[in-house]
Design a protein that fits this description.
314 residues
């Protein structure tokens, strides 16, 4: 009972924080500026970003199809699409998109909910590596301009951060004596035991499946960061794809590093967008409008579709 009350308080707090962040950002930037930026947006770039939504969804579908086929023996495209859309709908209004993990199991009648949750965790985990490696490298380059690192120091930091990610993955998932001993020690600690049990699910994945997931996750990362770059171009009034692609990766990286304190990650993404765009010499409204638009295109619209499909199912 105490845990249930605590969970409700946390959820209410997250709603409040999310709304508070949005209200603060709107008044910090000035609603008039937001409106003017929207009205002056380049419709062509906005439309191209919107047209990338089907590709975005297909890549998510493909990843989920690979996993559903391998672990559940499900190859029915209709069921897989339903599972994906239900998941998006369930995740948009829950903390850390936790509802998505359960909602994906709804069309899979003969599959254990826990198995779907673990497989969804795998589906979400792989793209994060690209956010950390690519976004992390861009963040170091950003710090170079902010603090004044030399090119040599910047290059060394990028290489070291990439090696660190690889090293940690090797220690956690490798089969060397050191890796096995480390996992044994971590599993003896209650704080790590549950996490490692879930992550160990990855060890059962064959090489062919892993290659498919990694390739699809890479293109998925490129797709939504390109969408963000195009939206920044639309609202800024100028097309500088390299600069805005750089900014998009910084924003997504920040979104992963900062704990998601609001529903649907609304607030963190917008705040990061405003901060980085202002530091790159643009008005904050450009970043805010681009982030909100990305949320509407990639999350809100598919979630509405998922909700309608769920109503039809009921």
């Amino acid at each position: 009972m105490e845990n249930l009350v605590r969970k409700r308080i946390v959820n209410i707090g997250k709603i409040g924080i999310g709304l508070g962040l949005l209200i603060f950002l709107i008044y910090y930037i000035d609603p008039t500026t937001i409106k003017e930026t929207f009205l002056k947006a380049n419709r062509f770039y906005f439309f191209i970003a919107f047209l990338l939504l089907p590709l975005n969804l297909f890549l998510q579908y493909y990843k989920w199809k690979v996993l559903s086929s391998k672990y559940f023996g499900i190859k029915d495209s209709g069921k897989i699409w339903l599972s994906l859309f239900y998941g998006i709908s369930g995740g948009i209004f829950t903390p850390m998109k936790s509802g998505e993990y359960f909602a994906r199991s709804l069309p899979y009648n003969n599959v254990k909910v826990l198995d779907v949750i673990l497989t969804t965790l795998v589906d979400k985990l792989i793209p994060i590596f690209f956010v950390i490696i690519i976004g992390g490298a861009f963040f170091i380059i950003y710090l170079e301009g902010l603090i004044g690192f030399s090119i040599f120091v910047t290059s060394v930091l990028i290489v070291l951060s990439s090696l660190l990610v690889y090293f940690l993955l090797h220690l956690l998932f490798g089969r060397s004596k050191t890796s096995i001993k480390l996992r044994g020690w971590l599993q003896s600690k209650k704080i790590f035991a549950k996490v490692l049990d879930r992550i160990s699910f990855l060890k059962d994945m064959d090489r062919r499946t892993l290659v498919k997931l990694v390739a699809a996750s890479f293109f998925y990362h490129i797709t939504f960061t390109t969408q963000m770059a195009l939206l920044l171009s639309a609202f800024s009034g100028e097309f500088n794809f390299i600069l805005f692609f750089f900014a998009a990766n910084l924003i997504i990286f920040t979104q992963i590093v900062i704990p998601p304190i609001a529903f649907g990650e609304v607030g963190v993404r917008e705040g990061a967008s405003v901060y980085f765009l202002q530091n790159l010499g643009f008005v904050g409204a450009v970043g805010f409008n681009a982030a909100i638009s990305l949320f509407f295109i990639n999350l809100l619209l598919p979630s509405v579709v998922g909700f309608l499909l769920l109503l039809k199912r009921s």
